[in-house]
Amino acid sequence: MRFSVTSACLFSLYISNAQSAAGPPSEFDWSAVTPSSQLQYHKCYDGFECARLVVPRDWLDVEKNKTVAIAIIKLPASVPSSDPSFGGSIITNPGGPGGSGVYFLRKQGKNLQKITEGKKHYEIISFDPRGIENTTPKTDCFGKSHALARDAMLLEQRGIGGLDSSESGLKRALALKVGYGSLCEGADSEDDIFEFVSTASVARDILEIADRTEQLRQADDTKMVQDDLQSPLHQRVEPKPPRVLYWGFSYGTILGNTLASLYPGRMGRVILDGVVDSHDYMSGSWLRNLMDTEKIVQYFYATCFEASGECPLWREGDTSAKDIQSRIEKLITDLDEKPVSFIADDQKASIRVLTGVDIRTAFREPLYAPLPTGFQHLAIALAEALNGNYSLIGPNNYPSIPLQDVCGLDRYSPGDAQAAIACGDARFYNPEDHPKGANLTYWGDYVTKLEHQSPTFAPFWATVGSACAGWGIVAKWGYKGPWTTPSADPSLKDDAPAAPILFTSSRLDPVTPLENAYKMSANHPNSSVLVLDTVGHCASGNGWSECFNEAIRAYLENGTLPENGTMCADTTCRPFVKGGECRPPESLYSAGVDGYGIAQRNWGRQPLGFPLGFP
């Protein structure tokens, strides 16, 4: 039986103003593609193929005429589907929730293909989930003609400060979120999409993509491969539908866990990387994410100290990493007590104000992706801030508010999908208990709990959980668990997966700690946890290891699982250290002119993603 391989991936970088972050200009006119209930691919971008697949908007009532047109992108395999070495289709999802699979695959598709290439060759597929970017209709509380209103809300949100700033600030922040929820409820009454973007609905969409992919392949093949098959999984037994291979990152592990739990008999292979606690996410708590965050912060200071002069923050006379950390902590305290202003270099007419929260927020992206240059860019920016130059910190916190004339520009906007998905899921999971509304005591205690886990990430992460404080739209269809599967059966027994789930993780992950992988794995018989000895969000995007890659290939090809708890070494270098594949450009080794210039160009310029996603 042939596989449809599905990989749920997530954008891992979140900012509270991500909804209007600037993104890459589109090079493909999606509106020129007619949506169809059958896959009809068109050449797009550079070496990719794109299609728009029509699916029912309401999977619980497919007789209704309302539909969704899912934007799908494919990176073809290096061999035709009729070749005996063709392994199937890997469908990826960038998660977030709310990230664009189209953008993700353009950025990471070839890297994923390189990991999987072995005896078998795979095509990689991704898609923009319901409500997101090129998929229509799109979740948008403000409307295309009201981009300025969205920016105004983001600026007001920034002016209020972090939820930990003061009781007054917390009250205003909660009031703003209640207003945002009311705005989205009004928008949904017009377009009727917000209640149909749940994780369960997207899981069902994945089956449809797999079915239509197999249907297209059967139509395109001039002959069926009958020989040189290495596994009974490749034997097409009609009328059974194709098995799905799913590779999910971060929030994509929730999507994958839900997919496997709802449809165990459709699963061929399931890889979940950067594992989220499904119960914690669905309950709307977001309290099982930051257990290892401060360990990575300490790793940043430790590797900086070990690198001595190669790290811009190191100074003569430092006796330990604590000396470096103390200077940054004093900078945070000083800016909390006395914020500073500066004129942005890129606009000249823009006044920026920085507080201690902005310094803590600057750790966000580098902790997700420390290598190859994340830690180096952070060290350069912090070193400049210590010297009174805040221009490298500032852009990281103002990337989405355009200050030039933008009338007529087609601005990229992920819309409001993150709130619609996460909050809709939570409201379905426990409608009596969530959202907590403007309950000042609850949210004050919530921030305190996060601060105990990670004082560095708490202000940022609190904005993630509290986004649902005023949300009232309940998902039409959701899943409350259990997140479990029956024992696997490679003979393709009905209602059983073909292989156990493979969970993977970095040793230290800032938002999906390793312990989550073991907790979720315990609910799936004979599943295994594979660890990459590196730091950063998700194993697949942080470092390179043939040990890790070979384990992925063996699992995809024949269902072989590594021993539970296997740890593969990251063969790339440590931060700030010369030598190795991850070595930053030579000009980044100091905070000199060249390194400063590159950091200034790169810092805060990439499209930012979401709290639970692929780096």
From TrEMBL:
Keywords: Hydrolase, Signal. InterPro entries: AB_hydrolase_1 (IPR000073), AB_hydrolase_fold (IPR029058), Pept_S33_TAP-like_C (IPR013595), Serine_prot/Carboxylest_S33 (IPR051601). Transmembrane segments: none annotated. Residues 1-20 form the signal peptide. It comes from the Eukaryota. Pfam families: Abhydrolase_1, Abhydrolase_4. Residues 455-568 form the Peptidase S33 tripeptidyl aminopeptidase-like C-terminal domain. One of its GO terms (molecular function) is hydrolase activity. The keyword Transport does not apply. Residues 90-307 form the AB hydrolase-1 domain. PANTHER family: 2-SUCCINYL-6-HYDROXY-2,4-CYCLOHEXADIENE-1-CARBOXYLATE SYNTHASE (PTHR43248), AB HYDROLASE-1 DOMAIN-CONTAINING PROTEIN-RELATED (PTHR43248:SF25). Belongs to the peptidase S33 family. This is Peptidase S33 tripeptidyl aminopeptidase-like C-terminal domain-containing protein. It comes from Gnomoniopsis smithogilvyi. The lineage of its organism: Eukaryota, Fungi, Dikarya, Ascomycota, Pezizomycotina.
